[in-house]
Amino acid sequence: MKKKTVPAIPIEETTIFNTENFHQLCEYLASQDDDLKTILITHGYPPMWTRENTFETLVHIILEQQVSLASALAALNKLKEKTKEITPESILTLTDEEMRECYVSRQKNIYIRGLAIAIINGNLDLEKLPEMSNDEVREKLVSLKGIGNWTVDVYLMFTLQRTDIFPVGDLAAVNALKKLKQLPPEITKEDILQIGEQWKPFRSVASMILWHYYLSAAGKKNT
Prior knowledge:
The protein is mostly helical. It folds into 2 domains: 11-49 and 165-217, Endonuclease Iii, domain 2; 55-159, Orthogonal Bundle (Endonuclease III, domain 1). 57% of the residues lie in helices and 0% in strands. It has 12 helices and no strands. The longest helix has 15 residues, at 69-83. It is globular.
């Protein structure tokens, strides 16, 4: 990590990370946690992972539920081949058989169609979500079938770029934390969340440092 002067962060005003403050937030966390500092020294800054606020992004996150990132991306790319552009309207033109040909499971087919219908019916307006609080976004999204807290966490972090989300349901982040802090395998989610409290109000950025650590250790830095 290249050392540079870090201006003071107005913590009470920083709720969204961006290209202008991301490295600054990483360095702030490193100044508070020696383990995170070691990651930055060893592996450099994490990528600032972001995604556009689109229907396709939410489809992608649904596809990533409980499967590898590579499998989810393969399914997304097959859907793109079928539809040319992944929109609520184009998804609803596909038959169940065509969805299966795109490696979409029966359950995820139901979830994705339900999401498409919610957007078309006006029950979900993606353009309004950035104006909502984290809790309001969570309440809105989890009301849809197949969207749980992990999916919302990823959306809040990657798409809305909210600074203070810890995805306790994400195995990669949790396993990286266990390794980094030498935690027992049987540690509870409640204890994991308690450890994450030390990184407030920048738990999203800490999570990205953990993912960076996990991917670097696995030799997948560009994933």
